[in-house]
Design a protein that fits this description.
With 338 residues, the protein is mainly α. Helices cover 71% and strands 1% of the residues. It has a domain of 224 residues. A two-stranded antiparallel ribbon has the order 1-2. The longest helix has 27 residues. It comes from Pseudoduganella buxea. Keywords: Cell membrane, Membrane, Transmembrane, Transmembrane helix. It is found in: Cell membrane. It is a multi-pass membrane protein.
Amino acid sequence: MKLVNARTGWSLLLLLALAFPFMAGNDYHLTVMSTAYIYAIATVGLNLITGYTGQFNLAHSGFMAVGAYTVGILTVDHGVPFWAAFALSGLVAAFIGFFVGLVSLRLKTHFFSIFTLCVGYIMFLLIEKWESLTHGTVGIVGIPAPESIGPLDFSEPRTQYYMVLFFLVASLWIMHRIVHSLLGRTFVAIRNGDELAQALGINLMRNKLLAFMLSVFFSGMAGGLYAGYVRFLGPGVAGVEHTFDMTMYMLVGGIGTLSGPLLGAIAVPWLTQYLQFLQEYRFVVFGPVLVLLVIFLPHGIVGTWLNRQRRKAALPATAPTPAPRLAAVPQEKGARHA
């Protein structure tokens, strides 16, 4: 029954996503939603290393920039077709992630986070200063749109939307297979405690490194999609504020859940869009809303709902029927007592 309910929920979400272009008022709404989907892919990757493995990587946006600049440099400077460059975006990010993880994952807790924060800033500086490769602060302009596949022309906002949606669905399916496999349970065991994981015979370094590489692979792929969708890149793509945005999406939706980062990555950008009429004061409203969510829903929207479902399932189906009380037998008047 739970499996049927989960499939029904995901099917309804997919149908709504497929129907969204026909309900959207204009192309701007498609742009907002497509960008949200791209960041949802990157957030799903961050959730794997942070929510499931317990390692908070603050260089995540830097790896997204690696994927984006892989596509930008190869297509603009070397004339490589978009799809060939896109195929390399996640692989290049994972390749660099191997060496970063090999060093950083020897550290624990906040030391790991501080180290990756420094790595992310180094990535930002390299993109900004290495002008011969990245074009520096000028950025990369004129990234070509994805080439057509048969009758599908990806130069239109609607077809681009469906392209990004396809990769989001594929990413969620792959992530579902990972987290519900023995490998996913291994990651959760590491999150629950290194000593416990070692006692179970888990190789900590190898599995942490694998989780890190898978995480940044999704981030690099999201960056490749971002480059093909926006078609302009600047050093700001690697800014650490984007990592904090993705962290906020996880916290709002539910860290360590599959659908939580997706919900947060879609809901938060739309909330900020609807608060635009407040101009610079919109964060005065948006900030307290986030604080209230963290206070009253510490496990996020999806995490809180799942916890309630587990508590309901733990309760007995029916309350035990109390034993009937025996009625006192009335005695006749004048009856003799023994």
